[in-house]
Amino acid sequence: MQAFTVHRGIAAPLDRANVDTDAIIPKQYLKSIKRTGFGPNAFDDWRYLDPGQPDADNSGRRPNPEFVLNQPPFDRATILLARENFGCGSSREHAVWALGDFGFRAVIAPSFADIFFSNSFKNGLLPVVLAENAVDELFRRVQAEPGLEIEVDLQTQEVRVPGGPAFRFEIDSDRRRRLLEGLDDIALTLQHADEIRAYEERRRREAPWLIVG
Amino acid sequence: MSGKTLYDKLWQAHVVHEEPDGTTLLYIDRHLVHEVTSPQAFEGLRLAGRKPWRGGSVLAVPDHNVPTERRDLGIADPVSRTQVETLEHNVAEYGLRFFPMRDLRQGIVHVIGPEQGATLPGMTVVCGDSHTSTHGALGALAFGIGTSEVEHVLATQCLWQSRSQSMLVRVDGELRPGVTGKDIVLAIIGAIGTAGGNGYAIEFGGSAIRSLSIEGRMTVCNMAIEAGARAGMVAVDEKTIEYVRGRPQAPTGELFEQAAAAWRDLVSDPDARFDRVVELDAAGIEPQVTWGTSPEMVVPVSGRVPDPARERDPVRAEGMRRALSYMGLQAGTPIAAIRPDKVFIGSCTNSRIEDLREAAAVVRGRRKADSVKLAMVVPGSGLVKQQAEAEGLDRVFLEAGFEWREPGCSMCLAMNADRLESGERCASTSNRNFEGRQGQGGRTHLVSPALAAAAAVAGHFVEPAQLEG
Ligand code: SF4
User: Fold this and answer.
1) Å from CA of B380 to ligand 1 middle
2) What SS3 state is found at B343?
3) For the CA of B412, the nearest atom of ligand 1
4) pTM, 2 dp
5) DSSP state of A31
6) Which of B204, B186, B206, B211 is nearest to B349 (CA)?
């Protein structure tokens, strides 16, 4: 997994609450059996004026000029600024893959939906939870100075704005460590293989109906 | 010390290892797999040279992409076909239990798990699908996961989890006639909001929940995720045990009785403490209809589309305005004046036999309104379809001008050929009314099966009891 330490980049303001994963990557693109190639279809329904198809070339499509990620410099954004309950709805990890493929390394919001939140960590996308007023402040700064680069620092657990305040964020220590070091989750878990086997032994005795088949 | 909640009991029974910060390696008993969220997981497993830890825990089925008509022709869309074939190859390679598209037992993953007795009380159940919360209706800890976690469970039979907070949603009192599990859960989401359950595992309790059948409880738990909750669950009672008895993969004989004795303990202790308790009066719940693009945008069928001008929070008001514009609705419009173009009865929320009976009871002896272009019924599984046909429900629907289809997710998310065209309005028994969910530009109103059926007959939303004829 890609490690995350410090990232500095343009932040794009996506000023909507409850952005769901259907919006981040619409269902027709979920038919892919790959993990990559979703970037051009991130936010597809909002981003283009004409409908798209999986496996099709997007270069001839009409971008929606109203959509923030079509407006330079936000088309080069690597940090997404969002509102509450970001990533709600479907569990599709494709949403995280699409954001990563677009170029995002971090999403900052007052709250995230659970599954999206944990999916992000598996893919080196850092979801940062900041208080509502901090997010408001970031929206104001970014909208006032488009192209403003902000810094997300996982080591110090801070979001920094040039010449402005630094906002501290909380993150669970285990997830932080895995992301900082870009560790392979499965390999780590398999270090506990003996414990898993011991658990299974015990459950076979105590609740034999569970380990059928 | 206070007693344990159902969630505490389920959690503690599955702890394999706990880190000092509380992050826990949790054992997974049952792993349900479908074609959309699994290909990359199997690919990852293969690339790392790993094998499934306990292949017997897996039950796999194609449901999202499958056609609901003319299965004999196979899947026309080559991209969909590849995805289903990829699942077929993966289950064959690793020798996993699988119901192919033409198997009578095939269906929506959350319908067939309980139907087969593959999901049982006391289990941890995961699937790369957010509506896995459905299985919590059996007193299981069931939740959706992403594809990386699917791979992780395949490889290790475990997941790293941190414990959720606990919420009790208690619905007490007697339900009005015609009010269903769907209406209860929509009313709950309306009350706490789509983010209201974030960070929580919700237990649904109270006399109104206990009065529901197991299938009704599944409808409620199914939409726990729409309230933002990690999991939804209902305590075990005798209904649960009778529901499970005799299912193909359930234990039998002495082992069943032994299991049932353990399952009876899967209730929250009387003195258990919850981090949050929400109470709803069952008698006050009316049949519900969503008007917007989030399940929390919901009102009773007798109500009106709300006015954003009266919303104080500017972000919410803007969300409401955007929803009204997307839905093509004016504030103040009576819900009863909204006229759907299509009606969809199906999805893992409402495609079980009782749902179809409830809809058929409304439709019987009536006809679909001419203004409704399409009314389709998509049973949740081949077995549900078979049962419905044995009861003659298919004829009730067909005679009323409805279509009777093969099982799958269908127009719940429109990954197959069943979808709304831009601007079309649908009365749907599914669980998400997000923009574009049922087809780009499509407009979804979430309702119970009875209300969907009534809308198909009347051509507008109406309480079934008020239908003429
Ligand atoms: S029926 Fe709808 S919500 Fe349920 S699993 Fe299928 S697509 Fe998901």
Assistant:
1) 10
2) strand
3) 2
4) 0.94
5) G
6) B186
